[in-house]
């Protein structure tokens, strides 16, 4: 997450956001994908309606992640569930979901340690990016632009279960690419997630893998 956080902080600083404003964004939003999209379209005065609609669309995947991880929260109380869902990010979901599959349950203490570590790290390194970003004239030359992609490749690899996983990944990728080419914007994220869920359901119904 560190290269991604540094990149986001650097891009935000170039758009005129201060370290305090970046800290507030990271602390309140805590969703790297939507923050990156928001920074990309940021200008002064800020287009609030466009920002809200775009980030809402990007974060619709949290509905899917929330439905998935909620099944694992049998040991969480009602208040604990709501609090845990605030800290639900892609990396938190992936690591918590895998832990639950491996152990058969998700302990609140594990989730709290995971979420707190990533939350504090994300805030610290995005703020650091506002200062360090000025020292990196071309982030792409250092590979920082690939950090976002690398994170998700790593998360996907952690869930690999053979050919069945490949089918799900392929369905999601094809749907995302087609929608991005045809519609543009950020709807390809939702399309890819939806296609992946449908493919996973069909594979599970046919083979039992993923149940």
Can you describe this structure?
With 211 residues, the protein is an all-alpha fold. The chain folds into 2 domains: 2-147, no CATH class; 160-211. It has helices at 2-14, 19-29, 32-40, 48-58, 61-70, 78-86, 90-103, 108-132, 147-158, 163-183, 187-207. The radius of gyration is 18 Å and the shape is globular. The model has no long low-confidence stretch (mean pLDDT 85).
Write the layout of secondary structure elements.
Layout: H1 2-14, H2 19-29, H3 32-40, H4 48-58, H5 61-70, H6 78-86, H7 90-103, H8 108-132, H9 147-158, H10 163-183, H11 187-207
Which range does the strand content fall in? under 5%
User: What is the helical fraction, as a range of percent?
Assistant: over 70%
Summed over residues and divided by their number, the pLDDT gives a mean of 85
Structural class: mainly alpha
Based on Cα principal axes, name the global outline: globular
Order of helices and strands: HHHHHHHHHHH
Low-confidence stretches: none
Q: Strand count, sense and closure of the main sheet?
A: none
Tally of separate domains: 2
Q: Number of DSSP strands? A: 0
Using only C-alpha atoms, the radius of gyration works out to 18 Å
The span between the termini is: 30 Å
Tally of separate helices: 11
């Amino acid at each position: 997450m560190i290269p991604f956080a540094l990149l986001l902080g650097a891009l935000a600083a170039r758009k005129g956001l201060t370290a305090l404003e970046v800290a507030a964004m990271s602390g309140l939003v805590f969703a790297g994908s939507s923050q990156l999209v928001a920074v990309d379209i940021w200008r002064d005065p800020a287009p609030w309606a466009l920002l809200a609609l775009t980030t809402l669309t990007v974060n619709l995947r949290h509905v899917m992640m929330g439905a998935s991880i909620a099944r694992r929260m049998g040991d969480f109380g009602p208040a604990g569930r709501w609090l845990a869902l605030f800290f639900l990010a892609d990396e938190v979901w992936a690591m918590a979901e895998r832990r639950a599959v491996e152990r058969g349950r998700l302990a609140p203490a594990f989730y709290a340690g995971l979420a707190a570590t990533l939350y504090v790290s994300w805030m610290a390194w995005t703020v650091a990016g506002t200062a360090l970003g000025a020292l990196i004239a071309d982030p792409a030359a250092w590979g920082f632009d690939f950090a976002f992609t690398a994170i998700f490749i790593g998360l996907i690899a952690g869930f690999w279960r053979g050919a069945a996983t490949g089918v799900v990944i392929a369905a999601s990728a094809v749907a995302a690419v087609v929608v991005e080419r045809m519609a543009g914007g950020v709807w390809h994220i939702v399309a890819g997630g939806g296609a992946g869920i449908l493919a996973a359901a069909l594979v599970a119904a046919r083979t039992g893998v993923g149940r």
